[in-house]
Amino acid sequence: MANSKKDSREAKARIARMEANNEQHQSALKRRLRDNVIAIGAMALAIVVAGVLALTIFSGTKAPNAQSSNPAATSEASPAQTNSPTVPEAATAAGKTFTGTLSLNGQPLGVQVDGTKAPQAAAVFKQLADGGFFTGKSCHRLADTTNFGVLQCGSLKGDGQGDPNFQWGPVENSPADGKYPAGTIAVARAGTTYSNGTQFFITFKDTMLPQDTGGYTILGKVTSGLEAVTNIAGAGIVPGPSGATDGAPVTKVTIDSFTLN
C-alpha cells in the first residue's frame, strides 16, 4: 500500500514536470514566432520606406519635411500633356552640349548639360539659367538613405511646390535600370511625365529611382565640385515626423548663380 502511494506521488510529480516543461517549450516557441514576426515586419517597413522615398522626392511636397523618395514638384492641378506657353522649343538645344557653373553657398560646381539626349530639358534650363531664374533660389530638400542620396533645388517659392504656369514634358533620357550615378543632375517632377518644371536634383551618391511611372530626365552631370553637395549632406537633415532621412538640410543652401554657355 505504501509503495502504491509512493508510486502515485512520483507519477504525479513526473506529469507535473512534463507539463511544466511543455509550457516552457510552448512559451519559447511563441517568443520565437513573435520575434520572427517583428523582424520580418521591420524588414518590410524598411523596404517600404526606401520605396516611398524613391517614389516621391521629386514630385514636390507641401512641406520640406514630407517623406518621399522621388524628386517631385507638386502643382495645384494635373498638367495637360502639353507644354506651357513660355516653355522653349526643344530644337533650340537639340544636339548641343552646354557647360557652366552652379554656385551653392559660394561653392562652385562645374556642370554639363546634354542637349543631345535631353533636348527639351536642356532648352528649358538654358532659358532659366540665362534669365537668372535660379539666382537666390534655395535647395529645400535633402534625402539620404540606402541607395538614395539627393539634394533638390529650384522651387519657385522654396517650399517644394511646382509652378502650375510653367510645366513641360516629356521625360527624356531616363535610365531603364533606374540607376542615377553620383553627380547626376536630373529634373524633378510630379505625377505625370508632363509635370517637369524648374526643380532639379543632384545625386551625391549612386541612387536608385523607380521607373514604373516614367522615371526622371537626366539633364546632365556635375563635372567638378561634387564635394560641396557631399558636405551639405554630411551636415545632416532637419528631423521630421518620420526621422531625419528626408527633409530640409541642416545647412541652409542658396543658389548664388547658375550659368550655362
From TrEMBL:
UniProt EC number: 5.2.1.8
Region Disordered: start-end pairs: 64-90
Alphabetical UniProt keywords: Coiled coil, Isomerase, Membrane, Rotamase, Transmembrane, Transmembrane helix
Bilayer-crossing regions: 37-58
PROSITE patterns: CSA_PPIASE_2
Regions annotated as coiled coil: 1-35
Chain ranges of the PPIase cyclophilin-type domain: 109-260
Keyword Membrane carried by entry: yes
Compositional bias segments (type: Polar residues): 64-86
UniProt enzyme class: isomerase
SUPFAM superfamilies documented for this protein: Cyclophilin-like
Molecular function (Gene Ontology), one example: peptidyl-prolyl cis-trans isomerase activity
This protein's name: peptidylprolyl isomerase
